[in-house]
């Protein structure tokens, strides 16, 4: 027991103070993000939009995410991650407060597009910050700690939000979202100082790198395709899976919440020790990515067998361990692959891969469910994972050849 405790504590040691502060800020920011999990209900119940209108608003949401990821990467390369993170969080807070006053289809669609364009410019910047504030040997655990904070926030935020909606309605959530963004950035500005070496590229290098290098990097394109396929499968955790639990297994919202909370609980308890253990092994990053897609595919094959309630728990466990490998190690590959001075562009392309999956995953999966049923969707989703496994093997071979 003492050894387990010692190993658990060891997994958190050696990380920089700045990474701990970034994790605290991520926890506050994600715990305060209460609107997004209930956005579809708000649009349908409070604004009386049709299902078609709601689905199109989420398309604008996804497009905004893609635009924000691209813009954030470009701005990070020009101005540095510190300024981008500061401005992005502050303006996002303002946008959420304004968003509650938009009640027509087009005003809300444009509002959510602008909000996500600003909010998701934060993502490439924080990935570059991880690289700046952590040693190379600690990058995976640094990513893991921030993910742990985000998941802990995701566990708290929606639960509190549900209570607030019952007592005070939806509009208070917009204020909380906005205020927590501003509080997070005030903490960031006071606790985390910009690294002295972070000077805009144009001022420090006479010989500038090729700004289009990321688009010419074949291995990174393969990696981006892998991330897209991973997202196409994984994001069904928040779309088709809750519907499946309700339609096939007749679970109520509380029971569904317990199963989804299992995902968060496993991550919070096991991810850091798990990553600490793996970091001591001399195994290529691409093999971890391949394994994550294999586990994810298995989780959906398990769902094909709908004769026993226990398969839902087994499936979510496979999916969670896939997540614990997939997100940190795809992130690590992107950080490692990024050329000096172009980290923002590389991390933008990494973020865009998942943003595109946010757009297409619910549209395709729900379309399959509507026409062919859930079981066919699980097989198609497992097929996405199989394609990802093949691409991961190809990427591994290219890495061995230093391509």
From TrEMBL:
<feature type="transmembrane region" description="Helical">
    <location>
        <begin position="256"/>
        <end position="278"/>
    </location>
</feature>
<feature type="transmembrane region" description="Helical">
    <location>
        <begin position="220"/>
        <end position="244"/>
    </location>
</feature>
<dbReference type="Pfam" id="PF07690">
    <property type="entry name" value="MFS_1"/>
</dbReference>
<feature type="transmembrane region" description="Helical">
    <location>
        <begin position="20"/>
        <end position="42"/>
    </location>
</feature>
<feature type="transmembrane region" description="Helical">
    <location>
        <begin position="375"/>
        <end position="396"/>
    </location>
</feature>
<feature type="domain" description="Major facilitator superfamily (MFS) profile">
    <location>
        <begin position="18"/>
        <end position="400"/>
    </location>
</feature>
<feature type="transmembrane region" description="Helical">
    <location>
        <begin position="145"/>
        <end position="166"/>
    </location>
</feature>
<keyword id="KW-0813">Transport</keyword>
<dbReference type="InterPro" id="IPR011701">
    <property type="entry name" value="MFS"/>
</dbReference>
<dbReference type="InterPro" id="IPR050171">
    <property type="entry name" value="MFS_Transporters"/>
</dbReference>
<keyword id="KW-1133">Transmembrane helix</keyword>
<feature type="transmembrane region" description="Helical">
    <location>
        <begin position="105"/>
        <end position="133"/>
    </location>
</feature>
<keyword id="KW-0472">Membrane</keyword>
<feature type="transmembrane region" description="Helical">
    <location>
        <begin position="348"/>
        <end position="369"/>
    </location>
</feature>
<feature type="transmembrane region" description="Helical">
    <location>
        <begin position="54"/>
        <end position="73"/>
    </location>
</feature>
<dbReference type="InterPro" id="IPR036259">
    <property type="entry name" value="MFS_trans_sf"/>
</dbReference>
<keyword id="KW-1003">Cell membrane</keyword>
<keyword id="KW-0812">Transmembrane</keyword>
<feature type="transmembrane region" description="Helical">
    <location>
        <begin position="285"/>
        <end position="302"/>
    </location>
</feature>
<protein>
    <submittedName>
        <fullName>MFS transporter</fullName>
    </submittedName>
</protein>
<feature type="transmembrane region" description="Helical">
    <location>
        <begin position="172"/>
        <end position="192"/>
    </location>
</feature>
<feature type="transmembrane region" description="Helical">
    <location>
        <begin position="308"/>
        <end position="327"/>
    </location>
</feature>
<feature type="transmembrane region" description="Helical">
    <location>
        <begin position="80"/>
        <end position="99"/>
    </location>
</feature>
<dbReference type="InterPro" id="IPR020846">
    <property type="entry name" value="MFS_dom"/>
</dbReference>
């Amino acid at each position: 027991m003492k050894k387990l405790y010692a190993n658990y504590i060891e997994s958190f040691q050696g990380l920089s103070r700045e990474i701990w502060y970034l994790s605290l800020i991520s926890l506050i920011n994600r715990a305060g993000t209460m609107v997004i999990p209930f956005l579809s209900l708000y649009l349908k119940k409070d604004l009386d939009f049709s299902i078609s209108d709601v689905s199109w608003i989420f398309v604008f949401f996804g497009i905004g995410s893609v635009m924000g990821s691209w813009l954030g990467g470009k701005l990070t390369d020009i101005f540095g991650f510190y300024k981008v993170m500061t401005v992005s969080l502050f303006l996002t807070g303002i946008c959420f407060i304004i968003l509650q006053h938009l009640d027509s289809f087009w005003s809300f669609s444009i509002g959510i597009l602008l909000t996500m364009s600003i909010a998701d410019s934060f993502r490439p910047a924080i990935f570059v910050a991880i690289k700046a504030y952590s040693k190379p040997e600690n990058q995976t655990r640094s990513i893991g700690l921030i993910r742990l904070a985000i998941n802990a926030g995701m566990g708290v935020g929606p639960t509190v939000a549900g209570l607030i909606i019952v007592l005070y309605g939806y509009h208070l959530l917009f204020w909380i979202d906005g205020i927590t963004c501003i509080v997070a950035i005030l903490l960031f500005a006071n606790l985390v100082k910009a690294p002295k070496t972070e000077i805009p590229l144009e001022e420090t290098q006479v010989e500038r790198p090729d700004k289009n290098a990321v688009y010419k990097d074949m291995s990174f394109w393969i990696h981006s395709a892998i991330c897209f396929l991973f997202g196409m499968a994984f994001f069904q955790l928040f779309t088709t899976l809750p519907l499946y639990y309700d339609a096939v297994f007749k679970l109520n919202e509380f029971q569904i919440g317990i199963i989804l909370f299992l995902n968060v609980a496993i991550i919070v308890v096991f991810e850091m020790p798990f990553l600490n253990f793996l970091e001591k092994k001399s195994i290529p990053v691409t093999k971890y990515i391949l394994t994550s897609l294999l586990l994810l595919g298995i989780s959906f094959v398990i769902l094909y067998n709908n004769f026993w309630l226990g398969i839902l728990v087994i499936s979510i466990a496979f999916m969670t361990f896939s997540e614990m490998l997939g997100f940190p190690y795809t992130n690590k590959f992107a950080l490692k692959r990024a050329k000096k001075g172009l980290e923002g562009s590389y991390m933008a392309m990494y973020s865009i891969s998942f943003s595109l999956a946010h757009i297409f995953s619910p549209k395709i999966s729900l379309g399959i469910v509507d026409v062919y049923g859930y079981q066919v969707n699980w097989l198609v989703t497992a097929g996405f994972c199989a394609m990802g496994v093949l691409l991961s093997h190809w990427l591994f071979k290219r890495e061995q050849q230093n391509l």
